[in-house]
Specification:
Distance between the termini: 38 Å
Radius of gyration: 20 Å
Number of helices: 12
Largest sheet: 2 strands, parallel
Shape: globular
Strand content: 5-15%
Strand order of the largest sheet: 1-2
Number of strands: 6
Oligomer: single chain
Structural class: mainly alpha
Order of helices and strands: HHHHEHEHEEEEHHHHHH
Helix content: 55-70%
Length: about 280
């Protein structure tokens, strides 16, 4: 499927009220840009198969803790899903189709798998966007958090605080607000940001450009994403496109912290294009 068609479908999936956003479908469309032979519908049906394998264990009035324990046992003990501690920044850990195939991922993609299975079993789960370590919570259990990266273990708020302190080396002050549920749109945005950061770090600007276009399909008015796409265009030698994006960025964020550097890039691009 061509990238333009994928972007159009992605925009259609995400340009709706948050509760209607199909996170898994949006993630699979993002993956299809990297894996052009991907059958999105077939991949999405995998979640139904995962849920169907344990559906007979659920009743409408099951205890919430029982529900999450059954899902965790199936995904992590039986199916072997796990966090990739050895190659955390492998891009495959951020593409949902690869997470399903390899049964390996990072916190947010494993959380999406968990929540999608739960949704098909009518278990109400919430994504918890703690910085650096995405978690899951049952809607009816407020003080226990599911760590999908570590085999579905249950964490207290204090344990979450310890994890955050370890991951940020104590640089981020703790607040219970860090354990608030996040919107579906933010889950999709966070998956895109992870991939963009990986590709920018690796200087894989071709792939960074593709991911940047998905970011702007999700939020066309994002100043940061417009700036980032402009920088990627600049690195790829797309001078006119880079100039358009960077000028647009300054219009959106004239007092941003990096405007001096952006002005310098714009001057360089205009000089080059005027020659």
């Amino acid at each position: 499927m061509e990238r333009g068609s994928l972007l159009s479908q992605f925009a259609e999936v995400t340009d709706r009220p948050d509760y209607e956003i199909d996170v898994a479908r949006a993630a699979m469309l993002l993956a299809a840009a990297e894996y052009p032979n991907l059958n999105v519908e077939r991949e999405l049906f995998t979640f139904q198969r995962l849920a169907g394998a344990i559906s007979s264990k659920f009743l409408d009035d099951d205890d919430p803790l029982y529900c999450v324990n059954v899902i965790s046992e199936h995904l992590f003990d039986n199916m072997g899903f796990r966090g990739d501690e050895d190659n955390y920044y492998d891009p495959r850990n951020s593409y949902l189709n690869q997470v399903i195939e390899r049964r390996t991922g990072i916190p947010i993609t494993l959380a999406v798998v968990y929540m999608e299975v739960g949704r098909r079993l009518k278990v109400p789960l919430l994504g918890i966007g703690m910085p650096g370590h995405f978690l899951v919570r049952h809607r009816e259990i407020e003080n226990l958090y599911i760590d999908t990266f570590n085999g579905g273990i249950l964490l207290s708020e204090e344990e979450c605080r310890e994890i955050l302190s370890d991951r940020t080396l104590g640089d981020l002050d703790w607040s219970s607000d860090l354990l608030k549920p996040v919107l579906n749109r933010e889950i999709v945005a966070r998956m895109i940001r992870n991939l963009k950061a990986i590709y920018m770090t690796d200087q894989d600007f071709v792939r960074a450009l593709t991911v940047s276009e998905f970011a702007l399909a999700l939020d066309p008015h994002s100043a940061m994403d417009r700036r980032d796409r402009g920088i990627v265009h600049y690195q790829l030698g797309h001078s006119a496109e880079a100039l358009d994006d960077l000028v647009y960025y300054l219009d959106l964020a004239p007092n941003g912290p990096d405007v001096e550097g952006v002005h310098a890039l714009i001057a360089e691009l205009r000089s080059f294009l005027d020659d």
